[in-house]
Amino acid sequence: MNAEATAPTAPSDLTDDNAFSSALEVAAAIRARRISSRDYLELLLDRVERLNPPLNTVVTLDAERARGEADAADRALADGRSLGPLHGVAMTIKDSFQTVGMRTTSGAPELSGHVPEVDAVPVARLRAAGAVIFGKTNLPIYAGDTQSYNEVFGQTNNPWNLERTPGGSSGGSAAALAAGLTPLELGSDIGGSIRGPASTCGVFGHKPSYGIVPALGQIPGPPGTLTQADIAVAGPMARTVEDLELGLDILAGPDDWHAPGYRLELPPARHENLADYRVAVWFEEPSCPIDDRVLERLERAADALEAAGATVDREARPDFPFDYATRVFGQLLGAAMCGGFSHDEIEELAVRGIREDEEGALAARWASQRHRAWLSANERRLQMRRKWHDFFREWDAVLLPCLPTTAIPHDHSEPMGARRITVNGEQRAYGEQTLWVGLTGVAYLPATVIPAGTASDGLPVGLQIAGPFLEDRTTLDLARRLSERIGGFERPPGY
């Protein structure tokens, strides 16, 4: 870890309990001058020093720069100036987002010394809101796995069980939140990379509607890329829904291309009372079964929603099959993830794709598909989006699993496609971890993940709440109200 030589010292008037305050609470305490930005930063740096080594979640520190920024935030407050809603709040950032003056690798050896001169757009927006960025959190190479390990920094472990993965690709983000090393994180999600880690680590995450948070400056593609990948979004991760709402307010809005003529006005939540919500429940599909231990926690959450007076229907579905949707997702995801590949790499994938008996042949075929094949898949996606639109005329939201299981044991075996997960004692395909999140991601829908408690194996379970396109405030509102009834974030033992 690129830490400073001088170990930080936690101030005597702040305790480890303060490390689990929400970002909103910390910002309010700094504004009221009950704590200083510098003292809060030192608390987090102290916890990183003590608690991060077995987790390996914070992989780069820029402590001295952060101390200077925290001191500047405290001076600004003394002068009566506000830097924004995150005035002086220290936080970490996923290592795929370029961060000025701080090593940004996306887990790739060829970028192990890359120090950006320009912030990614979401990072710049967090800084403009007053955040003090002090470190980067781990991920898989180029954010391309549902576990978080790479050759540059090694393996990140789950705070709930070090033998288990925190998920991926925002696994370091989720683990840092769960361990009380940061109050807020910036994640990204193309195949569940916010939602999966939020589920496995027992924190909150929001995948925004596609396109409302500019992600320019994320790696991949290579530094300097202007293309923003299909399906991929950037979004907030936190320990409360209120912090997710704050994060979305800061991050969302048109990019520089569109700002001269566009503005973003997300509609308010559809209802003001939990009992007024009409919610579908979709927890079971034969092609992607959910482990009974996970399903039990999800059903309890649905029961709590029904007990609160909401209309809950376990049969309502949009007018297309699950398997059809996830196949379209797979085809479009394959194309979206190969934008930085060379011509030779694409040609090699095309050859692999025609070998029907080879492991991963279908994924290779999708990654090397012709543009006309992509256009056909995109039309199928648009037809599904229309059917989701019709579905949400009657229903306000749908409850879904995030993952088929709780956090899986570490597995770095190759090829990735040959890995397996265990669901109710049965070996299942590793790629099934992306299907329930892909169902909503491919349709550009907003989805909020809340903790649904711990399963009988002692590991967290996350619930995905998806809603209509651009109605992020509805999924967040429902998430907050339901979370208040089922318990919210729990600190992992030992933290």
Characterize the structure shown:
The protein has helices at 23-31, 37-55, 63-78, 121-128, 171-178, 195-201, 241-251, 292-307, 322-336, 343-353, 361-367, 371-394, 435-441, 472-486; strands spanning 58-61, 90-94, 132-137, 149-150, 154-155, 184-189, 204-207, 233-238, 278-281, 311-313, 397-401, 420-423, 426-429, 447-454, 460-466. With 495 residues, it is α+β, with helices and mostly antiparallel strands. The strands form 4 sheets. It has an 8-stranded mixed beta sheet with strand order 6-8-7-14-15-11-9-10, with helices on both faces. A 3-stranded mixed beta sheet has the order 1-3-2. β9 (278-281), α8 and β10 (311-313) form a beta-alpha-beta unit. α7 runs antiparallel to α14 (472-486). It is globular. The model is unreliable at 2-10 (pLDDT under 50).
Write the layout of secondary structure elements.
Blueprint: H1 23-31, H2 37-55, E1 58-61, H3 63-78, E2 90-94, H4 121-128, E3 132-137, E4 149-150, E5 154-155, H5 171-178, E6 184-189, H6 195-201, E7 204-207, E8 233-238, H7 241-251, E9 278-281, H8 292-307, E10 311-313, H9 322-336, H10 343-353, H11 361-367, H12 371-394, E11 397-401, E12 420-423, E13 426-429, H13 435-441, E14 447-454, E15 460-466, H14 472-486
Parallel strand pairs: 2-3, 9-10, 9-11
Antiparallel strand pairs: 1-3, 4-5, 6-8, 7-8, 7-14, 11-15, 12-13, 14-15
